[in-house]
Every structure is written in structure tokens, then in C-alpha cells.
Amino acid sequence: MTQYVLRRLMLMVPIAFVVTIIVFLLLRLSPGDPVLVYAGEEHDPASLAQIRHSLGLDQPLPVQYVAWLTHALHGDLGHSIRTHQPVLDDIVQRLPATLELGIAAILLSVSVSLVVGTISAVKRNSLIDLLATGFTLGGVSLPNFFLGLILILVLGLALRLLPPGGYVPFVDDPLDNLRHLILPAITLATASTAVNLRQVRSSLLDALGQDYVRTARAKGLAEQVVIVRHALRNALIPVVTLVGIQVGGIIEGAFITETIFFWPGIGRLAVDSIGGRDYPVVQAIVLFSALAYMSSTLIVDILYAVLDPRISYGSRMQ
Questions:
Q1: Contact of 34 with 279, CB cutoff 8 Å
Q2: Which residues contact 177 (CB under 8 A, 6 or more apart)?
Q3: 273: buried, middle or exposed (CB in 10 Å: 19+, 13-18, 0-12)?
Q4: Within 13 Å and on the Cβ side, how many CA atoms surround 24?
Q5: What's the N-to-C CA distance of the chain in angstroms?
Q6: Would you say 203 and 213 are in contact if contact means Cβ atoms under 8 Å apart?
Q7: Which residues contact 196 (CB under 8 A, 6 or more apart)?
Q8: DSSP sequence for the chain
Q9: Most buried pick, 65, 101, 173, 226, via CB within 10 A?
Q10: Exposed/middle/buried for 3, CB within 10 Å: 0-12, 13-18, 19+?
Q11: pLDDT in tens, the chain (318 residues)
């Protein structure tokens, strides 16, 4: 297992390298000039040329990339073109809000999908099964930006049950923080809940028809024990894969949600930076997101061996 983890960690290095190259080139090929954003009202050609030189944008692309990569390897991700602040400081400042929203969405998705998906599989073709199936279809089909706007209009503006947007730090007011968190968390969790619920239901239905489940029932074990300790544990393996991907995609999923609800996280920072042609910030966020994806998939692979002892990453399985 240790050798497998070390190999995966080493594999992250070239993948991250390729990601940085692709993002670097796409940003430079996209329309828009960050110098104009930096200069503001200043349009004097000499001043623009001086700003371009100070930002290093007058150098050839390979030279620009090598300079950025060299600084990044030393922990310096550059300075924001818009705010002139260190990129790493901007990300660290926004990270707690994104983690709070992402963790809340993941917990909501996993808890609802496990409970409802298990009941739906055990009580197949019942009313709750039909409702759960309908929810999965609607949750997957409904875009999260549309769902977010509906929640804002209905619960935020029409009924005034919850704030339509904004953010209050947990340390300032925990209750108000929770009230502001509910709508964006539901918006971000709905699609993943639908996918996870469908997977839990289908995996559990398949597990309930296996021989080891029939053997457990023949031994006289209680039905709850058969479902939880035998069937559900094996059914969770594909669900863990989905959740791992969703954990890695927290930042991407938060792009639209954070923008709609004025949530001051990394997703909103990325949207603002893309619009402002803030190359250093976008490059850092994409790199951070890629590392999050790779880390989450590694954790998922480790959890496979925990859930199913038959799965091994020893030398015989390589």
C-alpha cells in the first residue's frame, strides 16, 4: 500500500505540470488584455508598454511560463493583476468559505442519498421509491444556476424564509451563518444527491441479490444487520468513487453557486479573475483544483481497500 501511495504521489507531479501548461496557453490565447485591466483609465501607449514590461507579458510565452513555474515551485504564485495582492493570500482568504459550502453540500448529499437510497432499494416500487426515482431525474436534469434562482425567488424574496444571498462568518454569528448557508448548500448538493441516490439504490439492489446476503439471512441475522453490515458495505464502493470525484470538484461546482449567492469563496474569485483576465489567480486556482482532484481520487483508492478487504494494492496486484 505504501509503495502504491508513493507512486500515485509521484504521478501527480507530471499531471500537474501538464495542467499548468494547458491553462497557461489557454489563458494567453483567450481574447482580452490584462494590461488594460491593470491600467484602468490609462491608455497612453508608453504607459501600457511599461506596465506590460513590469508584468513580464512582453516576454515570449516559454519565458513567461518558465518564470511563473520557477516562482511557483518556490511557493510564490505571483500577484493578482486586479488587486495587486499575493495570489496565495487571496486563495487562503477565500478558502474557508468554499470549504464550508463544499463540506455542507457533500454532507447533505451523502446523508440524504444513503438514507433515501437504502429505503428506496429495500422498499422497491413503493411510493418512496417512485418519489426518489423522480427526484433523481429532476436533480440531474435541473441546472444548478436555475435551481439557485428559483430558491432565491421563492424562499428568499417571496416567502422571506432565508437570506437570498451574502455571507456571514461562523465566528461572528453561527446562526446567521447557517441561515445564509442553507440555500447555496442545497443548490450545490442537489445534482450530486440525485446521482449518489441513484447509485446507492442500484448498487444495493444488486448486493441484495448476491449469495452472501442470502447466506446471512439463512443464518437468522436480523434484516437491519444484513442490510447495513453486509449489503450496504459492498454497495458503497461505487458510491465512494462518485463522492470522491465530487469532493475534488468542489471548486468547479462552486463557480456558479458562489456567484449567484454572492458567496465570497474561491469559485467566485475564479469567475471574477477570468472576467478580469487575471492570469496568475486563474492559473493558481486551476492548479489547486487539479491537486484537489488527484488527492481525492487517491483517498478513494485507499478507501476501497478499507471497505473491501479483497481489494489489495500489494505487489501481487500490480
A1: yes
A2: 167, 168, 169, 170
A3: buried
A4: 18
A5: 11
A6: no
A7: 109, 110, 113, 114, 117, 239, 242, 243, 246
A8: -HHHHHHHHHHHHHHHHHHHHHHHHHHHHSS--HHHHHHTT---HHHHHHHHHHTTTTS-HHHHHHHHHHHHHTT---B-TTT-SBHHHHHHHHHHHHHHHHHHHHHHHHHHHHHHHHHHHHTTTSHHHHHHHHHHHHHHHS-HHHHHHHHIIIIIIIS--S-SS----TTT-HHHHHHHHHHHHHHHHHHHHHHHHHHHHHHHHHHHTSHHHHHHHHTT--HHHIIIIIIIHHHHHHHHHHHHHHHHTHHHHHHHHHHHTT--SHHHHHHHHHHTT-HHHHHHHHHHHHHHHHHHHHHHHHHHHHH-TT---SGGG-
A9: 101
A10: exposed
A11: 778 778 888 888 899 999 999 999 998 888 878 888 777 766 778 888 888 888 888 889 999 999 999 999 888 998 888 888 899 999 999 999 999 999 999 999 999 999 999 999 888 888 998 999 899 988 888 888 899 999 999 999 999 999 999 999 998 999 999 999 999 999 999 999 999 999 999 989 888 888 888 888 888 888 888 888 878 877 887 888 888 888 877 777 788 899 999 999 998 999 889 888 899 999 999 998 888 888 888 888 887 777 666 666 655 444
Residues comprising the chain, all counted:
318
Amino acid at 141: S
Tell me if 236 sits within 8 A of 304, measured CB to CB: no
The three cell numbers of residue 233 are 458495505
Which grid coordinates are listed for 28? Answer: 494567453
CA distances from residue 56 to 63, 179, 190 in whole angstroms, order as listed: 9, 45, 43
Write the single-letter amino acid at 189: A
| CA distances, 21 to each of 18, 65, 126, 266 (Å) | 5, 8, 52, 21
